[in-house]
Amino acid sequence: MSNRPSASVLPLGRMLAGSLALLMERRAALLHALALPWVVHVLIDAWVLYAQASAEAALPAIVLLRLAVYVLLAINIHRLILLGPQSVPPFGVGPFARRELRYLGWSCAQILAAAMVVMLCAPLVALSQPLGLTVALLVSAWLVSRMALLLPEIALERPMDVAAVWQLGKGAGLGLAVLVVAVPLLAALLMFPLATSGYLLLQWLAITGSLLSVAFAVTGLSLAWQHLDSLRRPVLEQSAASAAVTVDVGAHPQAARGEAPSVSLAPDAGRGIIEVEVHGSFGTRDFGHVASGDGLLSYHGKLRGAVISLNGSAWNGSEASWDALDTLLSHLGFVRVHHEHLTRIALVAPGDWQPLADRLGKHFAHAEVRTFAAEADQGARAWCAGET
Q1: What is the 3-state secondary structure (H, E, C) of the chain?
Q2: For residues 233 and 287, what is the distance between their CA atoms, to the nearest angstrom?
Q3: What is the mean pLDDT of residues 256-283?
Q4: pLDDT tens-digit profile of 91-117?
Q5: Between 114 and 285, where is the model more confident?
Q6: Which of 78, 224, 231, 296 is most buried, taking the most CB atoms under 10 A from its CB?
């Protein structure tokens, strides 16, 4: 069975129009995302204009600072589009941690890949400069745009799967090149006269235009990734549904008959919590349902907690039941995306889970974990939502 979508052609016009509409609709969060990069760039440009000698001496630090704020801006825009306005921190100020380093590293890998293409095309450029240079630029743009599909996944803190993402962009290279390369390049050409005018006010205008163009291009990339991923998801779910391997935590005849998955996930927007309910055992067919975090990755509220309810005699607090829960949590998309915001995890299950509760810190490093008896599910929800 093929693991690639049946059609990967991007509706480019719809992507461009949708990018503009989304940024206008979420303009308040967009302003937050732009605040930190704009202030940093304005201060740097003022420094360069009025104290050129000292600015030149600190050039490496200035370059690194510009890169850092662009990475923060790009990640905030990805999350704004894919997760909603509440995922953007106030004034765009967030930690520069592992996620940001991965994003920066992959962005640098794109630049190195493009430079390698230009080097390989050097003999062709020497033979025919216009033709060779055009070929080098087109191949570089295609390669960079295909590699760029991994950036939204990094922003969502998904595990890096280069091969799968490369396959995801098959057939969509031209549209991606327009979104990722052509739009920022056109904006840079338009802003260049203002940026080099020598007038601080015009330079500030150029900074604003450049940052908006980056936000627009990143929005287009996010929508393109979402579109291509939506084409891939039914294929993944079909593959998972046909798999025969089952995690053995007890009998579950419903799964054998191909009925509804035994894992249900429901966000409670009013309380800011997510409920994960497991009935009996579960298998790889259920992982196909929950791996992408359907209904959760697009959740627009800021989550404060999660209630994990385990139903059935198999969930008795044994090592085997912990292994099954560990496997399930590793497949839940919202755990990777929202774990940094979760402060309370309520585990509702039969048996004695208290000795194993600390192990949940592997998945929820910043959260307080409590265990509750099966009949105390209402109290678990209230505690998780901060109501008690």
Answers
A1: CCCCCCCCCCCHHHHHHHHHHHHHHCHHHHHHHHHHHHHHHHHHHHHHHHCHHHHHHCHHHHHHHHHHHHHHHHHHHHHHHHHCHHHCCHHHCCCCCHHHHHHHHHHHHHHHHHHHHHHHCHHHHHHCHHHHHHHHHHHHHHHHHHHHCHHHHHHCCCCCCHHHHHHHCCCCHHHHHHHHHHHHHHHHHHHHHHHCCCCHHHHHHHHHHHHHHHHHHHHHHHHHHHHHHHHHHHHHHHHHHCCCCEECCCCCHHHHCCCCCCEEEEEECCCCEEEEEEECCEEHHHHHHHCCCCCCCCCCCCCCEEEEEEECCCCCCCHHHHHHHHHHHHHCHHHHHHCCCCCEEEEECCCCCHHHHHHHHHCCCCCEEEEECHHHHHHHHHHHCCCC
A2: 12
A3: 67
A4: 888 888 888 999 999 999 999 998 898
A5: 114
A6: 224
Query: What gap in Å lies between CA 197 and CA 191, rounded to an integer?
Result: 10
The phi, psi pair for 386, rounded to 5°, reads 80, 20
Mean per-residue pLDDT, 249-273:
56
How far apart (Å, rounded) are the C-alpha atoms in residues 317 and 310?
10
Distance CA 146, CA 175 (A): 10
For the chain, domain boundaries: 12-238, 253-384
* Cα distance from N-terminal residue to C-terminal residue, the chain: 51
Please report which confidence band the pLDDT of residue 233 belongs to, taking 50, 70 and 90 as the band edges: low
- State how far the Cα of 14 lies from the Cα of 11, in Å rounded to an integer: 5
The CATH number assigned to the domain with range 253-384 reads: 3.30.750
The residue whose two tokens read 């905030």 is 76
Q: Kindly tell me if the per-residue pLDDT of 285 is higher than 70.
A: no
Residue 254 has pLDDT above 50, yes or no: no
